[in-house]
UniProtKB/TrEMBL annotation:
Its cofactor is heme. This is Lanosterol 14-alpha demethylase. It comes from the Eukaryota. GO terms for biological process: methylation. The chain crosses the membrane at residues 20-43, 49-68. GO terms for molecular function: heme binding; iron ion binding; methyltransferase activity; monooxygenase activity; oxidoreductase activity, acting on paired donors, with incorporation or reduction of molecular oxygen. Signal peptide: none annotated. Keywords: Heme, Iron, Membrane, Metal-binding, Transmembrane, Transmembrane helix. It comes from Hypsizygus marmoreus. The keyword Ion transport does not apply. Gene3D superfamilies: Cytochrome P450. InterPro entries: CYP450_sterol_14alpha_dmase (IPR050529), Cyt_P450 (IPR001128), Cyt_P450_E_grp-IV (IPR002403), Cyt_P450_sf (IPR036396).
Amino acid sequence: MVVGRTRMQDKGLILNRPEYSIPFAIMDSIANSTSSAYLFGLALDSSNAVAATLAIAIFMILVSTVCLPFSESDIYELGGFSILTAWPFFTKRYDFLRDNFRKTGQRMFRFHVLQHRIVALSGELGRNVFFNDQSLDFSEGYRILTGAVPQLRDIEIVSDDEKKNILLKRVLYLFRKERVVNLLPPLFDDVQRRMSDWGREGSIDPFKEVYELVFQMTVHLVTCRELSEDKESIAKLAKHYWDLEKSVTPFSLLLPWFPGRAKKARKDATMNLYTLISGYVDLRRNSPHPTSDAIDVLIAEGDSNETIVGFVLGAVFAGVINTGMTVCWALVNLGMHLDWKEKVSTEVQALVSNHTDTLSSETLHKRLSTIPMNAWEDEMPVLDSVIRETLRLVINNTLLRRNLTRDIVIDGVTLERGDFLAYQASDVHANPEVYPNPEAFDPGRYDIGREEDKKVPMAFLAWGAGRHPCPGMRVAKLEMKIVIALIFAGYEFEIVDKTGKRPIALPQPDKNDLQQARPLGEPCYMKFRRIVD
Ligand code: HEM
């Protein structure tokens, strides 16, 4: 492999590590202290303290950017001031990685976020190490570089649960097939209740209303009926999540210890989430009638309130975003590709007539809720391909790891212990050699005979791969199918722009919008008319 020279090498300027380790050691100590103002003997609430802290922060930022830590490197380093270079990593992550791979022409490049070194990887070799190497930690990268993950440590609730992979274990335990089967009827009730608020005819923003259906179902799956049936509590829960999301700014990620407004907003939102969810855990704990709802199951397992709340926070975060954006885009894609809309409609009609009594006077959602789990999983190949293609086009998250154990050498490049790694799924999902015409919505590319997703190893990464496949896949697919089946069997719909007409151009997701991937430019809407109750 041809390895890029560092910019500093190009300029004949190579600094050794010890020269930058001093200012970064100071930064670390500040970051690790509960408050830099206290470190310097000042009270937090005095305006002097805030000014002093701000001055220290600015000083440290300047020091860190001036003393850019270039080592004698075997990898292309992004030059410039590290803060400025890395800023788009926080604001426009998708573009940042794509553009720098294009610009450098390399399979790997490195940049700095203050004291952290991040290596962006691409290609088959990089992908293989990223997903399979045992030295790579799954959670550190997300915790440190992605602020929207709710963490109880922000409100000084400390538990060892994170280390024990509680979230993964509980998701696997709660989402067992035999458990999920019993949840089908209440999930259909949930969605139906919310959809009936849309009225019989009108127009909705799917990126709000359909997204909310997914939020509702996910909360039901990981908490209890009392919470999921209380519209006001659900709305509050959603608001606290958005408050948390809004509190994340590039500045708050770069200087998480800085006692500014963002830190306070984050703390308040996390506390509000904790109080709300913990209240429902107490409610279930004190109930004389245990149920099979998730909170009751976890109480029976002996989990503390902290563990249960930590699980709920993580599961809602992991569950809603990707499922929400995928089902919204699946509906938009189907609304814009009438041939596929027709095929899905035929498939849904067949499912309904094969598994329900079409002459029954029961409502549609009640009939659908009796369809066996196997039928949802095995008898919807067209919808499966539509979901897969939507995932390929929309879920191009930047996946993160941290190398915690030992140096790893890939193709002559050393990934040092402590380095963060970033891999963007579009590296393969948008590769025209794997997926010809990669921007096109073409669910047929997974058909037998074409099978483009099997052309190279790990060609389809929307559900993860290697050591960390998504444990929520079964439930996420089920949630999407519930929504799509209810819409296809119960409504006529079309995708329109704000004037009520079919958009001239195909709406495209904003891949830098990590929470919702809303359409770029003009919004689009779903115009509907109820046809079957
Ligand atoms: C369309 C929906 C979803 C997509 C596309 C998706 C995608 C992914 C991906 C790509 C990963 C691996 C991340 C990495 O390698 O860094 C992952 C992991 C994970 N997902 Fe999902 N996910 C979805 C829904 C869900 C749901 C509904 C849940 C549970 C409520 C969930 C829980 C998790 C958890 C706990 C992990 C971490 C696994 C581990 O620690 O090894 N996901 N997901």
